[in-house]
């Protein structure tokens, strides 16, 4: 069976590649590797196959899955909840489907954080664009959508990839959208651009989603895009759902480590299986368990940038890769002492990483916040609203295992506003939102502000900083874009994987998911995660 929840026939079986996590990146890389019928691929996914559940396929039910069984609901300090997809397709099965890319300079900075000798691998805009396009099948705006104000630059999009992207049938056609575009320009000078995916996202425009226009706006998750079309024909690819990978098994525990496979256990909403199964990897183990869990598996570096959480690391930690000081008290033998988990980024390394980010903000003028304008069905019919999302925080969080029980959630510290500049950015962004709503032509449509309203009185200058700060601290929620927990960076900077996405000091373990982003980007992440996974697949194939 191509997708199964039974370990029978998988337990004890060898595969060429084992992919841990059938999420956004995991299914992408598995699909590409299994294009060669001589290569066998096993994907092990903790969640179930919920492709037929409207909470997954119906993009108009976005947010309904939060807090339910399809959501990991990791907890962090101050009672915060970090939602992440626990279902086939991972976050791509429950996310908002916003389809955007970061700026040219942000991708170029990834190379700058690697060894010079690795620059040729092409972790930059020019090297990523072909892969982001490869993943995509863009449906340019229809005449009706054009009339409502949709724009695009079709040449920057892919037109024959697996992930469908388009504007929706439900695209709202009222006067509020053009009024917002014009008011944003009038209030701030930010220009109206045609497309957020063209590498220059410092602008205001309407944005497509990862949905299939020709299939009634059905969500185009990684499962729908990469697995569904081939699942009945590609017999060399098996996906096991409802099983948690508990650790990586090692054939050789001297550096460079060689993985021999994985151990896994049944995992349902009611069962933490006690039986441990194994599967063997002839070639490689590929970690794609997301930015929180990879760290649990790897037990490696955890930068927890605001809006980013790293799931993968936990699996690394359970497998003996991580900070010895964390693993020793848990009686886990440290195989690779990767100290970057938690607090080990030296001041010198942080200076380099922060300077790269500051340069992107100051020289490249990369967007520091996103204003997500909402109208139509998402809010009451007489309301217009804006979410303000901070894109490039300097605060860093961390993920660490707390026990050797693989079912136990890792300890997550998001450290929001640990760097006070992040709070300044929030306040400046919110003041600008208020200004835009008070600027024509949007102001002509508004009868006044309800939220935050009197909670942050407008003193004529947009409100007092102290009032805004208190408001942000009380109301702030993460946009749930964790990255960087197993960063692709020079080892001296705290990197966990090299430019080939190989974990340092291992021969055959790679990380392929949002964990490897060394820095945050001014975009929603999924389009870039697909690009990373597509590029990773080619790197892995080239190494065969
Ligand atoms: C609520 C929400 C809304 C978002 N909205 C958008 C948006 O509108 N647009 C956008 O572009 N991006 C959005 N994002 C971000 C984007 O979806 C994610 O960054 C991206 O999909 C992450 O991909 P990934 O492959 O790194 O991880 P995931 O897609 O999370 O995949 C990891 C997979 O590994 C599985 N797993 C974890 N641990 C184990 C284990 N031990 N054993 C087996 N399996 C395991 C998980 O269940 C999961 O399926 C959103 C994210 C969230 C959470």
TrEMBL record:
Residues 393-533 form the Glucose-methanol-choline oxidoreductase C-terminal domain. InterPro entries: FAD/NAD-bd_sf, GMC_OxRdtase, GMC_OxRdtase_N, GMC_OxRtase_C. Keywords: FAD, Flavoprotein, Glycoprotein, Oxidoreductase, Signal. FAD binds at residue 245. Residues 15-294 form the Glucose-methanol-choline oxidoreductase N-terminal domain. It comes from the Eukaryota. Its cofactor is FAD. One of its GO terms (molecular function) is flavin adenine dinucleotide binding. The active site is at 481 (proton donor), 524 (proton acceptor). The keyword Glycoprotein applies. The keyword Amino-acid biosynthesis does not apply. Pfam families: GMC_oxred_C, GMC_oxred_N. Belongs to the GMC oxidoreductase family. This is Alcohol oxidase. It comes from Mycena albidolilacea.
